Amino acid sequence: MSSIPARGSAGPPTSSSGSRLARSAGVIGLATMASRLLGLAREQVLAFYFGAGNAMDAFNIAFRIPNLLRDLFAEGAMSAAFVPTFTQQLQNGKPRAWQLGNHVVNALLAVTIPLVVLGMVFADPLVRLYAEDYAAVRGKLELTILLTRIMLPFLTLVALAAAFMGMLNALRHFFVPALAPAMFNVGTIASVLALVPVMRMAGLDPIAAAAVGALVGGAGQVLVQWPLLRREGFRYRPALDTADPALRRVAALMGPGIVGLAAVQVNLFVNSVLATGEGTGAVSWLTFAFRIMYLPIGLFGVSIATAALPAVATHVAREDLAELRREVSRGLRMMLMLNVPATFGLVALAAPVVALLFERGRFTAADTTATAAALVFYAPGLVGYPAVKLASPVFYALRDSRTPVVVSVTTIALNVVLNVTLVRVMGYRGLALGTAIAALANAGTLFWLLRARLGGLEGARTAAALGKILLAAAAMAVSAWTIERAVAPMMPGAGTPARAIGVGLAIGGGLLVLALTAHLLDIAEFRDARRLVLSRFRRGGGPRPSPPGPSPS
């Protein structure tokens, strides 16, 4: 496999490059934090109204079908294929870039609308593919089919939102696109609160309110990005030229790219199929646990990967191997600094965190125990998922879509073997563990191959940083677990305020120990993250000065 020629010095990374990545990741992280917190609020509303029973199981499987493509479009193949190509077109002027944008939007409409129609027509066999075991529970399979038909148009809405997101990211607007998924959560929450009584009066299962909310939220993701995109000069035109070389380049990258980035989603599909055979609640426990884990993934992983992608594309276009290597290595170390402690923290505080977030209404203490068990085994995936989101797009920027495809297929096979084996030994918890192991294997293989492709990834520096981070994270986790166990018996009752105090003290104490240990071990990445946070507080949380060109949103 050939490498791009190296340019530039092999000296230390420039501060401007590091600050740009941290600044952009911080802007995305701010918006993503709002989105993920609203995502938790959405799950809390669903847990309160529906618990972890048959209706919630049906909703989760029904939404998994369009959501599979949402994840691939919004955070995977779309950005990996479209952003580098759109960035290259911008070098020829905005009119050429807008032409490509219109072609991509119309191509997505031409593909997804027929898929939605076919999905509605064949919803019965499609759902049975996922959840044949639901037929054993009266009405559960039929409810899942109904919810699937309601939510399938979400596929088209989120594909458009992803195209808008890609264009804005290429123009270095990060805040609004990262905030767009929050509209999905707002739409779902508002619809459940407003429509549950309406559904009952209409003779429908109340969970249908959440299905309608998914469509409302999907439309919100499109509408919130449109004003900024229009202000930049984009005008929609109903034109599609399939002979456009740029569109063909996007399609060529995106086709295998969907497979290359599909490992996580196929893993979830396998989990869904196997979990439906594990009895009422298993699908919902896994879903609630994954939602908790997804908060740090989205906040720390996706934000860094999204911020790094335009810079990666620029370095590739300039054939600057040295700076590309530094960019990828820097992003990896920042991910490790943020996600390794998060992994240890979730394992240490799984049960109290689940209880604090969900245990109310129809979500019982038994549901808390079951969800916490899934969370413990999902947690190691916190390192794997965001690392894949950083590594895969680098291959696509290098116009190598074959490598991620091969790695993905291998990982999928590994996941199937692990899940089928572990579910027999550990039940639904084995599905969480198998998914986490597969994610780590996917990430490790991609970075091993990327290391060979780029002539190294500052391996000694990264290994030293990881060793220090592991020590600091372990100290943090032990401290947080000890504090929570000591404080819990002192709290009156078991309500939300008491739980919040206990978890808050445990997290605060753990972070303090993490900071002290990181200082003693001289972890440079921790100092960088601390400086970023403190500078934002001093500036009132507003955006930092931006590099030349369009300012970040």
User: What is the helix content?
Assistant: over 70%
Globally, the shape reads globular
H/E element order? HHHHHHHHHHHHHHHHHHHHH
- Rg, please? 23 Å
**Low-pLDDT residue spans:** 1-15, 535-553
Count of DSSP H/I helices: 21
**Distance N terminus to C terminus?**
38 Å
Strand content: under 5%
> Main β-sheet, in a few words?
none
Please give the domain count.
2
Number of strands: 0
The pLDDT mean sits at 82
Q: Summarize this, please?
A:
The protein is an all-alpha fold. It is built from 21 helices and no strands. The radius of gyration is 23 Å and the shape is globular.
Which helices and strands occur, and which strands form pairs?
Elements: H1 15-50, H2 54-75, H3 77-90, H4 94-121, H5 123-131, H6 140-151, H7 154-170, H8 175-201, H9 208-232, H10 245-260, H11 263-275, H12 282-317, H13 321-348, H14 350-358, H15 365-378, H16 381-397, H17 402-426, H18 428-454, H19 459-487, H20 496-521, H21 524-538
What does this structure look like?
This protein has helices spanning 15-50, 54-75, 77-90, 94-121, 123-131, 140-151, 154-170, 175-201, 208-232, 245-260, 263-275, 282-317, 321-348, 350-358, 365-378, 381-397, 402-426, 428-454, 459-487, 496-521, 524-538. The chain is an all-alpha fold. The chain folds into two domains: 15-457, no CATH class; 458-542, no CATH class. α2 packs parallel to α12 (282-317) and α4 runs antiparallel to α7.
